[in-house]
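Model: You mentioned two targets. I'll fold them one after the other.
Researcher: Yes, keep them separate.
Model: Target one:
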Amino acid sequence: MAATPYLVALALIEQEGKRALPLAGRSLSAEAAAAEQPTQAAHSLALELLLRLWQRSDEGTLRRACGVESLLLVELPMECLPEDLPRIKADWLNSGDTEAFQANLQAICGRAWTMSIAKFEAVALSAWPG
């Protein structure tokens, strides 16, 4: 993995019958990149992304497109951001082929997690693919 990886939170959703894939991201510090899980950065990105989704709900009903694997956190090398990630995103938006999306994303990311939450607990990160 690159010395300064980029952390990206993405949500695979459907809204009013159309696929959408909003995301949020930021560079990781060397300390966060070395940690087993980038917990603090993950919580911040999850909040940012979910606030965007909440605002978007004014435009119509939202639905998770991939069940528990609809909210992902991935660590990518910076060089994948300008071309690889937008191509993978566009392919999924156009085709809806979730298996191809997941395989292509796994091919470029270093570490990845699904994000979830349980009542009275903090955001939990689970290794992806599980």
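Model: Target two:
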Amino acid sequence: MEKENITKEYTNGEITIVWKASKCIHSGNCVKGSPDVFQPKTKPWVKPNASPTEQIIKTIDTCPSGALSYYYNDGREG
């Protein structure tokens, strides 16, 4: 599968983190903001249960490319 077509989802039960590889510019904001959650040298590289949901959301909101996003699993708006 080509990088452009890769979209992965990771959930902690409350939110689902969405990563779109083709948008990623490797700014490192995710790793700097939540190194316990975003670990690019491991598989899977996103550990959604390693940090509180609020912290994960704050980190995702710093992604400059939009490669990382999230949605609430219960359908509410974020």
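Researcher: Noted. Anything on target two?
Model: Residues 3-72 form a domain with the Alpha-Beta Plaits fold (CATH 3.30.70.20).
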